[in-house]
């Protein structure tokens, strides 16, 4: 019996560093996500570049302890891509290319990391950035990437919202409504209440806007007839 207990303790002690590392990584990612949401939704636009630059330093500090972790690479890409809105045009082009390269690296390391967040972010970049020769915008790639994210987990607010937003841009309002409504029905994460509730609010705004447009078209057709 004593030998069995000793063996059990040895196994637990050998596993403990890996467990602690996993917990620390999860906590780091969670804190970065929360800080990103605070800056994005609560900080004045003119202050955001400074705040995102500071957050980027934090991400890179965590990366020293957790090299080649897809989760942190994704977070860095999100910060870089978001901050592109706050910098000069040429710097913004560099930023969106850097974000793309980081996300491709993360997908290569672990495509399922953060429930497919790399696919969501990269797909969003592909349909929002300009096409060649300015940048790399490509609607076909965007659709494939966003659908990859949904294939990994169809029940995330981000994947459904951004796929719906893409569908609106493609003129597919009916399909978009389906995914906006899915985004509304996914439970908000306790750890990311600000980010999730904000995105659900945007989904509701989009649903209301699409409904108003549909009603307007119906009334216009009725008057014409």
Biggest β-sheet description: none
Strand content: under 5%
Radius of gyration: 21 Å
Anisotropy-based shape = globular
H/E order of the elements?
HHHHHHHHH
Outline the low-pLDDT stretches: 5-23, 217-225
Layout: helices, strands, pairs:
Elements: H1 2-42, H2 45-65, H3 70-83, H4 89-109, H5 117-128, H6 139-152, H7 157-169, H8 173-185, H9 193-224
Helix pairs in contact: 1-2, 1-3, 2-3, 3-4, 3-5, 4-5, 5-6, 5-7, 6-7, 7-8, 7-9, 8-9
Summarize this structure as a short list of keywords or feature phrases.
single chain; 80% helix; 225 residues
Question: Would you summarize the structure shown here?
Answer:
With 225 residues, the chain is mainly α. The protein is 80% helix and 0% strand. It has helices at 2-42, 45-65, 70-83, 89-109, 117-128, 139-152, 157-169, 173-185, 193-224.
Could you please describe the fold and organization of this structure?
This protein is mostly helical. It is 80% helix and 0% strand. The chain is built from 9 helices and no strands. It is globular. The N and C termini lie far apart (89 Å). Residues 5-23 and 217-225 have low confidence and may be disordered.
């Amino acid at each position: 019996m004593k030998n069995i207990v000793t063996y059990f303790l040895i196994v637990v002690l050998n596993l403990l560093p890996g467990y602690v590392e996993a917990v620390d990584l999860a906590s780091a990612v969670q804190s970065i996500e929360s800080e990103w949401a605070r800056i994005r939704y609560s900080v004045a636009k003119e202050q955001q570049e400074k705040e995102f630059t500071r957050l980027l330093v934090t991400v890179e500090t965590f990366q020293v302890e957790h090299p080649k972790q897809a989760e942190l690479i994704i977070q860095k890409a999100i910060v870089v891509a978001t901050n592109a809105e706050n910098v000069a045009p040429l710097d913004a082009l560099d930023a969106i290319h850097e974000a793309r390269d980081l996300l491709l690296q993360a997908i290569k390391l672990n495509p399922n990391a953060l429930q497919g967040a790399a696919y969501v972010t990269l797909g969003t970049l592909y349909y929002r950035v300009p096409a060649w020769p300015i940048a790399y915008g490509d609607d076909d790639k965007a659709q494939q990437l966003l659908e990859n994210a949904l294939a990994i987990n169809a029940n995330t607010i981000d994947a459904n919202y951004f796929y719906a937003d893409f569908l609106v841009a493609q003129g597919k309002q009916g399909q978009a409504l389906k995914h906006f409504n899915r985004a509304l029905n996914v439970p908000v994460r306790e750890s990311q209440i600000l980010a999730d509730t904000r995105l659900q609010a945007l989904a509701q705004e989009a649903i209301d806007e699409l409904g108003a447009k549909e009603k307007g078209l119906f009334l216009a057709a009725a008057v014409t007839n």
